[in-house]
Design a protein that fits this description.
- This protein has 2 domains: 3-90, no CATH class; 107-342, Bira Bifunctional Protein, Domain 2 (BirA Bifunctional Protein, domain 2, 2-Layer Sandwich).
- It has helices at residues 3-19, 24-35, 40-45, 56-82, 85-88, 107-120, 135-138, 171-180, 220-235, 294-299, 315-323, 330-333, 336-339; strands spanning 125-126, 132-134, 158-160, 163-165, 185-194, 205-216, 241-245, 251-260, 269-270, 273-274, 283-292, 306-314.
- The mean pLDDT is 93.
- The longest helix has 27 residues, at 56-82.
- It has 343 residues and is an alpha+beta fold.
- The chain contains 13 helices and 12 strands.
- Helix content is 39%, strand content 21%.
- Bound molecules: 3,4-dihydroxyphenylalanine.
- 3,4-dihydroxyphenylalanine (DAH) binds next to strand 11 and strand 12.
- Residues 168, 170, 210, 248, 251, 288-290, 310-312 line the site of 3,4-dihydroxyphenylalanine.
Length: 343
Amino acid sequence: MSLSVELENLAGQFEKELAATSSPEDLEALRVAFMGRKGRLAALMALLGQAPPEERPALGRRANEIKKLFQDLLEGRAAVLRRPAAAAEFFDPSLPGRLPAQGSLHPITLVMNEICALLERIGFEVVSGPEAETDFHNFTALNFPEEHPARAMQDTLYLGGDTLLRTHTSPVQVRAMLEYKKPPLAVIVPGKVYRRDSDLTHTPMFHQIEGLLVDKSVSLADLRGTLAYFARSLFGREVRTRFRPSFFPFTEVSAEVDISCILCGGKGHRGGENCRVCKGAGWLEILGSGMVHPNVFKAVGFDSECTGFAFGLGVERVAMLKYGIGDLRLLFENDVRFLAQFA
Ligand code: DAH
C-alpha cells in the first residue's frame, strides 16, 4: 500500500476513534497513539525516506495537514466533552416558547373588588374586622338583646365563652364607629362570614359586603340614591331598584332591596315562558338595608343627633347573577376548568 493511501486511512481511523471518546483521558490516549513521538503518524513519517524523491514534498505537506487536522479535531471534541450533558442534547431554537400556566382571580374576589371600587369612587373607605368576633360586636351592640329571638335569625357557630364566628359583616359597623369616635364616616367592609348552615343553596362560609354611612341629616333618600347608583354600576344603566319593608334589629326603618331582573328586564317572562332567573317575579332580591337604629348609636357612644344608613349584601349571590352561575357549589369546588373562565 502506498504511503499516501496509508496517510488517508490513518485520518479515517482517527476520526472514527475520536467519535468514540467520552472523557479527557480517552482524548489524551488517542493523542499519544496517533500523534505521540512513537505514535502512528510518526511511524508513517519515518517511511517518507523510502518514497520516490519526486513524491516526498507532497507527502510531507499532506502529513503536516493531517497533523494540524488531528489537533483541531481534538480541541473540538474536548470542548464538546466539557459541556454539561443536558446542554449537549438537541435544542431547536426555532420552536415556539412554552408559556407558563397563568392563574386568575376567583369570581368572588373579582366581584368584591368591583363593588369596593365603585363605592370607593363615591367616597366610601374599605375597612375590615376579625372573623372570630365577640357576642357584643356581632349581636348586642347591633340591638339584638340577649335571649331575644332575633338572634335565631342567624344560625351561629360559637367558639366558646363570649366568642363566635361572625354571622355577618355588620359587627364591623360597630368597630368602625368605635374607632372613628364621631361622624362623619362612610365605610365598606368586604369579608367572610359563617353560619351553621349547609345545603344546596347555603355554605357554612360565605362572603358579604357591608356599607355604613353616618353624618348629620342622612335620609332614606340618600340610601335609595346610593343603592340605585350601586345597582346601575354593577348590573347596567337600565336596572331599576325597589324597596320592600323588612326587619333588622339594627335598622329602623328596614328595607329589602330588589333590582329589576337582569335577564328579562323586569317583564317576568321571555319568549312566552317564565323567566328562569327571576322565576316570573320580574325582581331579584339583592340586599338588606335601612336607617341605623338609635340603639346602635347609643351602644357606640354616638349622640342622638346622628343619622345614617347601612346595607349588607351576599357576594356569592351577586357573583351568580352577574356571571350566570347556576350552582353555588361551583364557587367552592375550585375546579380549574371553571376558574380558568375568569382569566
Ligand atoms: N347583616 C344582615 C345579614 O347578614 C344584612 C344587613 C341588612 C346588613 C341590613 C345591614 C343592613 O347593614 O342595614 O343578613
